[in-house]
Amino acid sequence: MSTTPVGAPIAQPDVLPPSKPVATMVGKPLRRRKPPREKVRRKKRTTEQIIFTTANTTFLLVLAAVTLYPLLNTLAISLNDGMDAVRGGIGIWPRVFSLKNYEVVLNMDTIYKAFFMSVLKTVVVVATNLFFTSMLAYALSRSEFIFRRPITLIFVLTMYFDAGLIPNYLLIRDLGMLNSFHAYWVPVIISAFNLIVLRTYMKSIPEEVIESAKIDGAGHFRVWWQIVMPLCKPALAVIGLFVAVGSWNAWLDTLLYNSGEQWLSTLQYELQKLLASSMNAGQNSANMANNAASVSAGGQLTTPIALRSAITMVAAVPILCVYPFLQKHFVSGLMIGSVKG
Amino acid sequence: MTNAPVSNLVTATGLEPALEPAGSSRAEDRKARKAAKAKKKSLEKGPKRKITWDIVWAQRALLAMAVPLLLYQVLFKYVPVYGWAIAFQNYKPGRGGIFNQQWVGFDNFEKLFTGVNGERFRQVIINTLGQSVLTLIVGTFGAIILALLLNEVKNLGFKRVLQNITYMPHFLSWVIVASLAAVALSLPSSGGFINQFLLAVGLVDEPVMFLTEPNYFWGIVAGTSLWKELGWNTILYLAAITAIDPALYEAAEVDGAGRYRKMWNITLPGIMPTIVVLLIINSGWILSTNFELPYFLGNGLISERAETIDVFVLRYGYQLGNYSLAVVAGIFKTIVAIILVGSANQAAKRMNQETLV
Questions:
Q1: Which residues of A fall within a CB distance of 8 Å from B55?
Q2: How buried is B238 (Cβ within 10 angstroms: 0-12 exposed, 13-18 middle, 19+ buried)?
């Protein structure tokens, strides 16, 4: 966000400046911002300003620490010996370093399989979602398409209308998708919000590109797949990330639709079960007894709190490894979506 | 049915950041914008075309792309409404499909809104509203303040790192966040570092029982949501700040305005439209609160403050088999949500902002 001016369009296709720059929707071009202001400030740098900068920096650092601490604490516990962790008092550094918790996690058949189910589910959901959403977005971005308005409206309304948990469950049941992998991806192949984002983005592609492809004899499917899709890569990347995060983090779909089959269990669902059982085992004080009870798996011993920490890290790390690389696209992803159809 | 990322959808929807340079006559501005909008609309629409079979045939490729997906969406988003029939039945899963059930008219509505259930459901509504209003207020204030402070950071590298760190919790699942919160809020002996900190600083003499005291729960929900979404929610405010005309700051500096003066009199008014629109939009979602926190952290001792509509539907309806009452609660929620979103939309329209529907 700091290198590209905020509010500028998603890094535009290199070759072709769009005829209708996305920036117009967001605000005026913002490039002329900094220089003059900076100069003035330098000249009259007062004590008051130094105090402010120091206070501000300190505050933001404290905030960063508060943001990071819970996760670092969990990481430390997960890397600590399970029995020792029960004694509490671990900060952000393991007291008795041990990789045993992760060994136990990897040896637990359920967790191991759930991890791969989560990966598979996320991959399938992202692939199908991007494919279908972009195909529809292309059709709806064509101004000559006669039904584009009513169809867009029907999709936009689904952003606000939800039949509810039990009616949705009944539909999945009546379609015979309970306890099947299809219950994971079929209900979510289109997200109305991403559809609008992509459609708006596609509208900014110059008409001439598409026209010339058509003159060369390309049909709509070919234009979509070979011309428009490559030009939409930045938008697809952000949407792909959002969809992946949503799918990876979901657990309610497993609980509702697929809890009957162990092989369909996902990482978040397993984590959720651990959390629910530890919460039910009693609040606070009663927790001690529960925490001290050891868990054994594959002949190894550890404790619930250490185990939960290790699984939490396994569930958190894949996503945390990806998002920083797409950071600069977030703003534009959010902004484009803000313009309705 | 996914674990609906409503909050991020909400923050992400429907606003234009502060566009107009403050100072020009508002009324004139508004008129001009309206005219421009109308013009744009008519241009977009073009002359009305008649739909003939020729056109339909010529666009068969586009139709082939759109129509199957349209049918899909109707099937998965609108067709489930048939399940609302359950609200008027004495639904027993054992009896088979919804056609073999006993019809009872509005009995379930009466059951849910009166008597013992009525009291419970009223409390459920109050909890839902309380948690989401508190979350919304705390979240909005927090995000605005953080955006203002981040905007004052001149070292771009430092700013970027800070942003990346504060975005991080947004990508964690609510299960993980609930789990972290459960640890953080527990007793010191179970690793509750908030209590450890409070004891160490001397703010309290003995550990606070955060998760067994009903009166803390709304605050816990708001605080945890703040931790998760604070950084993410600054994105749109920061973008709005960048859109403010720098000439305004220069003029203010010439007039001798200090840093706080500029924040208060230029930046804040500059992002006010964004703030208002986001608030209006989010208030449309007030019944769709976060679901995981009350579900996982709300135990029997504090359920009087913890139970929300979604939790009620899942726990009392789905897991205990009271389908009919759960569907009534769901219908109630959907209808109120539609009314709220509709009026939020109207309000946004009246304020001359981009609308949602």
A1: 146
A2: buried
Provide the domain count of chain A: 1
pLDDT in tens, chain B (357 residues): 333 333 333 333 333 333 334 444 556 666 666 666 666 655 555 555 677 888 888 888 899 999 999 999 999 999 999 989 888 988 887 777 777 788 888 888 888 888 888 888 999 999 999 999 999 999 999 999 999 999 989 888 999 899 989 999 999 999 999 989 988 888 887 778 888 889 888 888 888 888 888 899 999 999 999 999 999 989 889 888 988 999 999 999 898 888 888 888 999 998 988 888 788 778 777 887 788 889 888 887 888 888 999 999 988 888 888 888 889 998 998 888 888 888 887 887 777 655 544
- In this prediction the ipTM stands at 0.79
Mark which residues 27-46 of B lie under 8 Å from A by CB. Answer: 46
Q: Which residues of B touch A52 (CB under 8 A)?
A: 152, 259
- Among A160, A172, A253, beta carbon nearest to B338: A160
Check if the beta carbon of residue B131 is closer than 8 Å to that of residue B289.
yes
Decide if domain B116-357 falls under CATH 3.40.50.12780.
no
Q: Which of residues 247-276 of B touch A (CB under 8 A)?
A: 249-250, 253, 258-259
Closest B-chain CA to A129: B69
Least CB–CB distance from B211: residue in A135, A284, A331 = A284
**What's the rounded Cα separation, in Å, for the pair B4 and B10?**
11
Cβ distance A193 to B13 under 8 Å? yes
Q: Which of B11, B159, B313 sits opposite A2 (nearest CB)?
A: B159
Does residue B329 contact residue B256 with C-beta atoms inside 8 Å?
A: no
C-alpha distances out from residue A242 to A7, A51, B117, Å: 19, 40, 39
Quick count: other Cβ atoms within 10 Å of Cβ A176? 10
CATH code at position A47: 1.10.3720.10
Query: What range does the domain containing A107 cover?
Result: 1-341
CA-CA distance, B315 to B321, in Å (whole number)? 9
In eight-state DSSP terms, residue B48 is P
Using DSSP's 3-state secondary structure scheme, residue A131 falls into: helix
